[in-house]
Amino acid sequence: MTRRPLGSDGCLPPTLRMGTADVAYHLATRGRPLPVAFVFGFGGRAPTLDAVRARVAERAHRIPSLRYRIERHRPVFRRVDGIAVERHVYEVWLPEDADEAEAARLMLTRPMNTGTRPPWDVWLVHGPGGGHSLCYRSDHALQDGVGAAHTARDLLDDHPQGGPAAHHASWPTRRGLADALGDAVGGFRAPTVKPAFDGPSSGRTTLCRADTPLARLRVIGRAHGGTVNDVYLAALSHAVHTWHMKATGTPHPPLPVAVPMSVRSPGEECAPGNRMVTARLLLPCDEPSPRQALARVIAATAQLRASRRRDAVRLLLAATPRALGARVGTRMVNGDVVAAPASSVNFGTALVHQGAASRSAAVFAGVAAGIRCLTTLTSQHDTSCLTVVHDTTLATADELPDLWLAALLELERA
């Protein structure tokens, strides 16, 4: 059943109750904004700042996720009436030596809106080689990556339509419920050994990325009976295996990651809040063969789908008092329990702004709660982008995107 979109009757409630995941993010960051950003890369002539501001001014008031801020001392979102676009839309020029990932790094480090304004902004970023980027950014306590995708589309696209698929809820199996409970209990056990990722965080992050044709991932997946997401995770597993072997000469044990899964229903595309759950997955980084790593990932994700784990976690959270559920959530996704969130978002057709189609898209977030790394795969039209956000103490983590591409090449030859 499709829900009636929030605000479709012309009215938005003055406050909205924060969900369990929203409160968990707020607790994990101790109330500091944690950026979730979508960066779209373009070639050719850039639009003017005035033109971008005019587009945002025309549409922002109709998008519910842009109309709320986080109440300082209460777990609620409070509506804001009136949006001054000059305080939300900015322009910046990158230095001559900037690479293609510099616009994304900027989104990790620039201070975000706080206080009485909704915590989002849009940036027109001019690159040194004539290209430009359009960046949409929000606070993760108010919006997840799929919500950011829909909001960016509705706010910036010439003819907004499409985007990540909605989730249609179903009843989980007993196995799904048992595994979801196991994940929750596992968050309170002793820390998991993750030698490549354990250690103190500096609080300073950076970012690296690699692009590849989406068709390449699809062909590999079809050849082995898996999905694009399976190929992404298996190649990531082998990249970590190679990276750790190079540094230490020893295999890395299976790596626990948190896999975010959207539960955003039809009609909730641009609703405020995090409509997502996570599942703990072990990446087979001990496996020297990328083909065998892919087989193990396919088996693991097939079990997630067959048991309908996504809906099991959704139902458990709905049945748990919000404060308790948020505390459990902070235990399930932190640096003691998982090495990294590993997410995947298919944006769909290319974003078109002022007549120009974006060549690439990347969604990512900052890191918190002792986690020193985060990976995302963003697919748009015919291109997929791997983004690795990492703490600067992981000094050689910028090797991971190239090692991921090398793993894809091995899978193609398998």
From TrEMBL:
InterPro entries tied to this protein: CAT-like_dom_sf, O-acyltransferase_WSD1_N
Gene3D superfamilies: Chloramphenicol acetyltransferase-like domain
Domain called O-acyltransferase WSD1-like N-terminal: residue spans: 48-175
One BP term from GO: triglyceride biosynthetic process
Protein name per UniProt: Condensation protein
Source taxonomy: Bacteria, Bacillati, Actinomycetota, Actinomycetes, Kitasatosporales
GO MF assignments: diacylglycerol O-acyltransferase activity
